[in-house]
Amino acid sequence: MSAKVPRNFRLLEELEKGEKGLGADGCSYGLTDGDDVMMSNWNATILGPPHSAHENRIYSLKIYCGASYPDQPPSVHFISKINLPGVSQTNGKVDLSKLGRVSQWNRDFTMEKILVALREYMAHPNCRKLPQPPEGSTY
Amino acid sequence: MSDEATSAPERPSSPVPEPITFTVKASNDSKFSLSLPPTTTIADVKAKLVELSEIPAERQRLIYSGRVMKNEETLETYKVQSGNTVHLVKGAASNTTASAGGAAPSTPAVPRLAAGSGNNPLAGLTGARYAGHVQLPRPEMFGPDGGMGPPPDPEGIAQMMSDPMIQAQMNEMLQNPQLLDHIINSNPVLQSMGPGARQLMQSDLFRQMVTDPATIRNMARMGAGANIGGQPSFPAPGQTDNASATEGQQSPLPQSNAQQSQSPSLGANPFASLFNGSAATGAPPNLQTLFNMYGGMPLGTPPAAGAGTGSPPAGGEQPQQSQQNPMGANPFLDPAAMQLLQLMGGVPGGSAPPPGFLSGLLGGMPPAAASPPDHRPPEERYAEQLRQLNDMGFFDFDRNVEALRRSGGSVQGAVNQLLGG
């Protein structure tokens, strides 16, 4: 049994990965405010997957990691408007339970994993051709 | 690592700032190392990257730490640290949105297409991602010598378009801005329409229109009707004050009766008559008023029946038709839309090939290209075909769906299966 990584160590790990660009293609994330000692508020972008209505678009998101992260999943909101099942059309909140790979939250999951899952979902045959709101519009 | 996170705010803003050495990672996996003072603006960074990445500055999007970097900000603003990585992404040229920040959208960049696709945006459709989904073209599509003959006939197109896979693909094509450019640029008429054409083709309504088999059939009939020596096949519904149409209103009734008996939807389609009426008068402004009238016409108006056909199926079909018909909404008030419709229907000349626009669109499409798998539920996916099967008297939903699946969505194939099996 490996030791449980405490919240802040885990978030620092994720921060470094995000800043160094070691993460997956098409996703980027970092702290909203570098002074935030609790590392709660994060910004993220997802580059629209190719061959979809999202191609060439950059979607901005905000992620909030509560005190119980990573035992509890973070809350994820789209800032850029997007037409995607599971994303609230009023405030952009992502319903993680609808997001296949991360629907069953596990404390080993990371923000990157959520972003990658979202990006994959955007390229899913059911979603990739959905008409999208004008680029640049926000919630 | 904790150093980096916490030292950021403490970095003193010294008068002689040390340059930051950071990596720029482009989407094609190439990396560039830049060493710049923290006061460098993002616009300057982009200017430096033009040579390295060969991406014009106005198409560059820099992303760091989950944020799109704005041109007027500096590296300092985003607290870029030495050793960190900034992502470089190629955005759309016409992007004037917030993500572009202060990017100068005034100079339209030369479209840069993905490597390997040359200058043909259709090349993507033949790519490997379609491998394995090849739907063979019907034998009729080929001429006697095996080549592609003349553009497919309207019925063929309509049949093709009733295939959900093709529909999905058309949808996808129309969503691709590069392809739209290609289509618009290759057609002088569309070109002369200016930005209106683009806007129109991108509208959902238009997309629905060109992918709806019923509409296509109707358009084909319009075209065919226009070819009958300019004799209108049916008067415009609700048309009362149009002097030019009076001859058309009275004389061809027997003919329209005949046509109606063989195809109720023609009689019920107000557009066929609208177009034919205008072909007779040759006055496009008229057309517009007609459309206005149609737009304002209540669904239950009985023009078809009132014209003396007395054919119950036609009368009964009408409200349904106009409800379903996506053309019923008001894009007709848009002059650009009118122009495009005339173009497609070949109306003013009365001799152009019926769905010329569509044939062009489809003609340019590699015949073997097929769309990726469709995961919609069968009742949605085959809605149109199921309706047709129902009309033909096949009421067993499960069997219909199964037959449609086996036939790849072809109604004819499904009927053969249902009768044979």
UniProtKB/TrEMBL annotation, chain A:
Q: Which residues form the UBC core domain?
A: 6-139
Any Pfam family hit: UQ_con
**UniProt keywords, alphabetically:** Ubl conjugation pathway
InterPro entries, per database record = UBC (IPR000608), UBQ-conjugating_enzyme/RWD (IPR016135)
BP-aspect Gene Ontology terms: DNA damage tolerance
**Keyword Isomerase on entry:** no
Taxonomically, which superkingdom? Eukaryota
Q: What name is this protein filed under?
A: Ubiquitin-conjugating enzyme/RWD-like protein
TrEMBL record, chain B:
The UniProt entry, under SUPFAM superfamilies, shows: UBA-like (SSF46934), Ubiquitin-like (SSF54236)
All copies of the Ubiquitin-like domain together span 20-89
Q: Which domain of life is it from?
A: Eukaryota
- Provide a Gene Ontology MF annotation, just one: polyubiquitin modification-dependent protein binding
Checking InterPro entries in the record gives:
UBA, UBA-like_sf, Ubiquilin, Ubiquitin-like_dom, Ubiquitin-like_domsf, Ubiquitin_dom
Ranges annotated as biased composition (Low complexity)? 96-111, 249-265, 302-316
Question: Where does the UBA domain lie?
Answer: 377-421
Write out the biased-composition intervals (Polar residues).
239-248, 318-327
GO BP, one example?
ubiquitin-dependent protein catabolic process
Q: What are the GO cellular component annotations?
A: cytosol
> Which residues does the annotated region (Disordered) include?
1-21, 96-115, 224-270, 301-332
Q: What is this protein called?
A: Putative ubiquitin-like protein DskB
Its organism's taxonomic lineage begins at:
Eukaryota, Fungi, Dikarya, Ascomycota, Pezizomycotina
